[in-house]
Each structure stands twice: as structure tokens, then as C-alpha cells.
Design brief:
Layout lengths: L31 E10 L4 E9 L15 E6 L4 E8 L2 E4 L8 E8 L2 E8 L6 E10 L5 E9 L7 E8 L2 E8 L7 E6 L9 E9 L1 H14 L18 E2 L8 E15 L2
Parallel strand pairs: 1-15
Antiparallel strand pairs: 1-2, 2-5, 3-4, 3-6, 4-5, 6-7, 7-14, 8-9, 9-12, 10-11, 10-13, 13-15
């Protein structure tokens, strides 16, 4: 248990009063946190990586990286792709996901096996960026909109990223109300200035991943890392096959990605 000390001072009088309040914080056993992404771009380039960490006590600012797990992805044809550890909890593979192929993630850690199965979800390409210099609440901020056209007559879900040194913007979209139309991902951060480089990414995702990220982004406010400590547990699609009660946090995602880089004018 750890204790949190709250100092209460009453100003405007000669003496001060100091109260000590004991806050009992339960420390649960660490859980595995899995961020597994198989991505492929329109030009055929691919990136397949799994990042493993564990949860940590509330006041612990260090990220506990997992360096000794065994990770493979197996496709529906029985081909096995091993993932090798590199650094900072990240394991990499040369796997390039293909359309209409089912992929199964397997992780063995501390004699327990974690697994999930996904297929590749396609995405509409990002087309152009529109800039306004009178955006935000003050009317003085730079805001950017990255546009893409949703295919008509089919259900699609998207995960959007706007990334720069000034800050990141994350969002998810369901095409229920803009099916077949041109829509945009919105990017607005403080202190964005001419010359800044912004990378926009749009991922095709499943409905389950859309729901997962929608809840996470509501909890985190849409900024920062969605895989940081959350105020409530949000379960992903990865299951502990050995001990279901010791479930992991995180998600296994297989996506086509469209990227558009933009220099602020």
C-alpha cells in the first residue's frame, strides 16, 4: 500500500494547519499490455510489430517493458511468422499482410498463452489537406482537415491519426452517416505554426476495434497514448487461453493504411 499526503494550508491567519490524509491504494498484480499491429500501405510497404509492456502501480512513472516473450503470427495457410525482440518492448517481423487472409497472433509469456485472430481491413486513401488559420476557440489557431472519400454501399470503420511534434490527434469514424461521401479527419493542437510537419494516417479497422478505440478515446480525451493507464478497464480482442481471468489489455489489429504528409503553410 502507498500513502498520499495532502497538505492543507489556511492563508490569512498567523498560524497554519497541516492535515495528513491517508489514501490506501490497492496494487493489483501486473497485467500484460499488448499493442499488436500488422499494417500495409497502398504501395505495398508493410510494418508488423508487437509492443509488450505490463501495467504498473499508480505512482510508478517507469514503463515495464517485456523482453522475454515468444511471439508468432500464423496465417490461415499455416505459414508461421516469428517476431524478434528489438527494443523498448517492441518485437518485429517481415510479415506483409494480404487481403482476405486470416491471421492469428500467439504470445507465450510467463507460461501463459495469449491469442487473437483478425483479417485485413482496407481503407480509402487520403486525398488532400485543407488549412484554416482562424480555427479553434480563439479564432487564431491553425486547423487542418485531411479528406478522404468513403466507398458507397458498404459499411466501413476508420482509425485516424494526426501526428506532429506539437501534439497528436486521434479519432475513430463510422460511415453510417456519411456513406459514399467525402469526409475529413480533424487536426487541431496548440502552437501549430507554419513550417511544422504533420503526418496523417487513416486505417481501415473492424467494428470491434472501432468500439474499443471509441471507449478508450472517450476516457483519454482523444490525446496522449490510448495504451496508457486507463480509469476503467477496456477489454480488447486478445484472450488468455491458459488463464482467462488473467486477461491482457490491448488489441490485435490488421489494417491497410493511407498516409499523407503535410507542411503547414
Amino acid at each position: 500500500m502507498k500513502k498520499l499526503f495532502l497538505m492543507v494550508f489556511f492563508f490569512g491567519i498567523v498560524t497554519s494547519c497541516e492535515d495528513v490524509i491517508d489514501v490506501e491504494l490497492n496494487e493489483a498484480a501486473p497485467r500484460l499490455v499488448i499493442e499488436a499491429n500488422l499494417n500495409v500501405w497502398e504501395n505495398g510497404n508493410a510494418s508488423s510489430a508487437v509492443r509488450l509492456t505490463t501495467t504498473a502501480p499508480f505512482f510508478d512513472n517507469n514503463i515495464p517493458f517485456v523482453t522475454d516473450a515468444e511471439i508468432t503470427v500464423t496465417d490461415e495457410n499455416g505459414l508461421i511468422y516469428p517476431f524478434m525482440y528489438s527494443q523498448n518492448g517492441i518485437y518485429n517481423s517481415n510479415l506483409s499482410p494480404q487481403l482476405n487472409v486470416e491471421y492469428t497472433l500467439n504470445i507465450v509469456y510467463k507460461e501463459e498463452t495469449y491469442s487473437a485472430t483478425e483479417t485485413l481491413y482496407t481503407v480509402s486513401p487520403l486525398e488532400f489537406v485543407e488549412q484554416r488559420d482562424d480555427g479553434g476557440f480563439t479564432g487564431e489557431d491553425i486547423e487542418l482537415k485531411a479528406f478522404f472519400t468513403d466507398p458507397a454501399g458498404e459499411q466501413n470503420f476508420y482509425f485516424f491519426e494526426g501526428l506532429s511534434e506539437r501534439g497528436d490527434a486521434l479519432d475513430v469514424y463510422n460511415d453510417e452517416f456519411f456513406d459514399g461521401n467525402t469526409i475529413f479527419g480533424y487536426y487541431l493542437v496548440e502552437d501549430l505554426a507554419p513550417g511544422d510537419e504533420v503526418q496523417f494516417n487513416i486505417y481501415g479497422v473492424s467494428e470491434a476495434y472501432y468500439n474499443f478505440m471509441f471507449i478508450l478515446l472517450q476516457q483519454t480525451g482523444g490525446g496522449g497514448g490510448p495504451f496508457e493507464t486507463q480509469p476503467a478497464t477496456v477489454r480488447g480482442n486478445i484472450v488468455n487461453q491458459t488463464n482467462p481471468d488473467n486477461y491482457p489489455l490491448g488489441y490485435f489489429k490488421v489494417s491497410e493504411v493511407s498516409t499523407l504528409n503535410y507542411t503547414v503553410q
